[in-house]
Structure formats: structure tokens, C-alpha cells
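Progress against Task 2.4 (sequence-to-structure conversion) is shown through the following example record, which the project officer requested during the mid-term review.
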Amino acid sequence: MTTLSTATAPRPTLGFIGAGRVACALAIAAARAGYDVTAIASRRLDVAQRVASALPACEALPIDRPEDMNAIFSRADLVFLSVPDDAIATCAAHLSPRAGQALVHCSGASEVDLLAAARHQGAQIGGFHPLFLFAGLDDDAIRLSGSAITIEADAPLNDTLHGLATAMGCRALSIPAGERMRYHAGANYAASFLLCLLDEATQLWQAIGMPEADAQEAMWPLVMGTLNAARERGLAGALAGPVSRGDAGIVTRHTEALASMGGNHATLYSLLTLRAIHLARQRPNADRAALDAIARAIAPYLPPFAPERDA
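C-alpha cells generated for the chain above:
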């Protein structure tokens, strides 16, 4: 077996415990990048076989008892633990890697120290979290290329994981130990919370009688145009709407209209407006007085804990 010792060492053989969407896409992407994926282990042998069948010389391993997971260490140098967060510590406690091998989890939220038992046995441990929405589609492994993968590991495993990410066409990022909660919360804003904002837009348009299907179809050019502008010009440079124009009158009328609906629509709008003010202030020719007026306009709708510094 390959020892993960230097950046110039041969590529390690890869194995996966868990055969869900993440494991399937990563295994196929790694194989396409020239890595040998030798084993997939799962409690669902049929699912493991389905993944293994898409890979050359990959064996599907059944997990009937926790100790069965250890069979993968006779077949792979670098093992990815791609199981739900709540199962990581339990699985890790039953694993017995050998010195020179590596165990890596694929969670963005769980700390790497959950794998400490493997480190005590001489294995290297780390985190390998793709910033990507795994939809379970046939082309997930292809679409993964171009995404960022956040890595937490000590040398030499750090170099090994960076090399794998780069070979898969991904951008390798690093995260310091103990910071996974803030990191993962940030990822939620760029993914699930973005959907929540689009749901809010849909609700507002439905409230004036627009069918949901029409509302959602109408927003895609606006959404994609905004994202493309942000990529080209940065977040502050892409900001549009009344805050970017310094139009306190429109913001006042927005909040009044939303407050009349009840619920938390005006509060959510005002909290997001705080962030829009923060972005607008970054512009070189920002109208400070106009932005101050907008901050005063939304103040009545903000919860008491909203930090003034965000404005």
C-alpha cells in the first residue's frame, strides 16, 4: 500500500464508507481524474454495487456489523467517511486504520476531531468538503468540476487532498481547525438561504395574485443576471435597487407595504437592507447621507438585537 508521506508519492488508492450522493459523485470524479477507487462499503449492498459498477476494478463491500467497515482498509490507502453527520463519531469509533493510512470525512459542519480515534492508531485524519449541491443526478461528478473543496488536514495529508481536489478540476480551499460552524453557516447563505429568499419573493408576488409558477419562472433571469454581475463586478459593484440609488423614499414605502401584510416580511426586508447598506458603503462614491436616511427608515422594523455597525 502507498504511504501518504510526501507530495511526490504515488497517488493513494481510494475507498468510501457510505454510498450516497456525495460518495458516488466524488468516487466517479476521482476515477475520471486517474485515481484508483478500489472499494465502496455500505449497509445497502445494492447501492454500493451500483456505484462500484460505474468504476473500473472497484469492489462493493457489505456492512452488516460495525466492524465490517474495517475491510475497506485492506483495499484502500485513503478512506472517505461519507455518512450523515450524526453517524461520523459512531462509525469512527469502530474503525481501525493502520499507520500510514488516512481517514477523511466529507462534512462541512462536523469537526475533524471526531476522527481522533483513527489518529491514535497512527492514521492521518482530515476533512474534505465540496461546496457543491449534490442533486443525485447522473452528471453530478461532471458538474463538480469548477467547484471549491474545503480541506482541513495536517501535512502530508493536506498536500494529498489538495492534489486530489486539483486533479478533479476543483479549487482547493483551506479551513483552520475549530472554525467549521461559521464556515458551514456561511455556506448555507450561498445555498439553502438563497432559496429561502427566492421563496420570500414568491410569497410577495403570490400575495398580489401572481400564480406561483409564473412568479418563479419570472425570477430566473433576474437571479441569473444578478449572479453573473456579482461574479464580474463583485458584490458591492453588482448591487442594484433603491439602496444602491440612495432612495430612502422607496425603502420607506417598501417597509410600510410589507408591514401591512403582517408576519415578519418587513423585518426580513429591513435586516437584508442593513446588509445592502453595508455593501453600498463600500462603493467609492457612496452617498453617505442618503444611506444614513435609509438606515433611519428601516430602524422601526428592526429587532432590538440588530447591530448598528452593519449599516
